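Example 3.2
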Amino acid sequence: MRWRRPAVFVGILCLLCLLYSLTEPYLIRVNEVDVVDGDIPEGFDGKTVVFAADIHCGPLFSVGRVRDVVSKINSIRPDIILLGGDYIYSDVKNIKPCVGELKNLKAPLGVYGVLGNHEHWADARLSGQALEEAGVKLLDNRAEWVGSAGGRIRVGGVGDLWTDYQNIAPTVEDAAAGDFVILLSHNPDYAWETTTDKIDLMLSGHTHGGQVTLFGLWAPAKNTAHGGNYVSGMADIKGAKVFVTNGVGTTGLPLRFFARPEIVEITLLRKL
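Structure, written as tokens:
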């Protein structure tokens, strides 16, 4: 009978891992990140940017859970809210219920976003229209100056790398070397395609942090061609800080394992 003990132990461990992987999608954390850059104007020193991506409202992420995400974001009292795409799970019928909650997002300096591949797979035009009507200013191949007393920053975006075209010119053409520039790109692989040195911070999602990983050490499904630290967290790519979020929702299966869902609270700092 002794030979059965290891098998029983492995079976119990697998069961516990499965139960945890079904639980982790509900354990949304607030990931606090400081971004220190001398280009940040005095008027933005200490301001907060909330970044969220990959909600995937639909069969695996209910409208009620979207409502909870919106409440969690608003409780941070951010100055700016940036959204990184994939608000829905493929079907355009999910966009209206989703934006019915996203319209309640509140930030004094605005709510901005880009579309992800799931919006394009569903219906990019209808998705974009619904988001704009909900107060989310879309920045796909567009940019805005976001101003505050003491300065302004440039916030721009590009179209999804898989399903759209990318034009970074609107983001950088009016920006000087000393301006602080944030770029939204749903897919982080775009960081390797940029040819400008004007991007200070690029924010992306898409990878889900691997979603199901080997205890956070390795992600078999990366959704990116570059892997490594590129799946989640901060990296320096071609002179820019690139932050890839684990995202909020899931795709495929309602599972996460050591890729905890998150809302990112970024504090802009001129110096420590």
